[in-house]
């Protein structure tokens, strides 16, 4: 098929999924659903919803906001959607690149005290340090 690429995702089952490469509304909608479906399968394999990160020397937790923020933004591009498909590797291997204070006018960042940018290969991972629990929470995964 023109404009798509076939990849294999080994999550719960060995299934092939076509990720649309275009930027039409339908392509974005399809990628958004694929990301949500991927997270559902990923959580089935990782019921504790966390992965140890070598650079932070701490667990990075995947929460509801992680899925919503990533599905909303990563679906906008093919490359970012591909990044989500490497979630475990990115969570494990991404290295700290920057840190900054939260945007006080951003409601989505309100639960965090600091934000961190981590990078792995061509992908970036944004992690928030949650004020109440001290946990690192995946905020976004996508391409550079």
Biggest β-sheet, characterized? 6 strands, mixed
Adjacency order of strands in the biggest sheet: 3-4-8-7-6-5
Number of domains: 1
Order of helices and strands: EEHEEHHHEEEE
Report the mean per-residue pLDDT as an integer.
89
The CA-CA distance between the termini, in Å, is 27 Å
Shape: globular
Helical stretch tally = 4
Percent of residues in helices comes to 25-40%
Count of strand segments: 8
CA-atom Rg in angstroms: 15 Å
- Strand percent estimate: 35-45%
Please state the structural category. alpha+beta
Spans of at least 5 consecutive residues whose pLDDT stays below 50 are 1-14
Short key terms for the protein model shown above:
single chain, 144 residues, alpha+beta, 6-stranded mixed sheet, two-stranded antiparallel ribbon, 4 helices, 32% helix
Describe this structure in words.
The protein has about 140 residues and is of the alpha+beta class. It has one domain. It is about 30% helix and about 40% strand. The strands form 2 sheets. Strands 3-4-8-7-6-5 form a 6-stranded mixed β-sheet, with helices on both faces. Strands 1-2 form a two-stranded antiparallel sheet. It is globular, with a radius of gyration of 15 Å.
């Amino acid at each position: 098929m023109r404009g798509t690429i076939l990849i294999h995702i080994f999550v719960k089952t060995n299934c092939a999924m076509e990720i649309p490469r275009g930027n039409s509304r339908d392509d974005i909608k399809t990628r958004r659903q694929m990301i949500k479906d991927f997270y559902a399968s990923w959580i089935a394999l990782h019921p504790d919803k966390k992965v140890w990160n070598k650079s932070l020397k701490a667990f990075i937790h995947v929460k509801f906001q992680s899925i919503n923020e990533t599905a909303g933004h990563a679906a906008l591009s093919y490359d970012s959607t591909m990044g989500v498909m490497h979630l475990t590797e990115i969570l494990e291997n991404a290295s700290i690149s920057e840190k900054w204070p939260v945007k006080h006018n951003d409601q989505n960042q309100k639960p965090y005290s600091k934000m961190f940018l981590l990078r792995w290969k061509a992908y970036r991972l944004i992690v928030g340090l949650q004020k109440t629990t001290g946990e690192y929470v995946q905020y976004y995964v996508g391409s550079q």
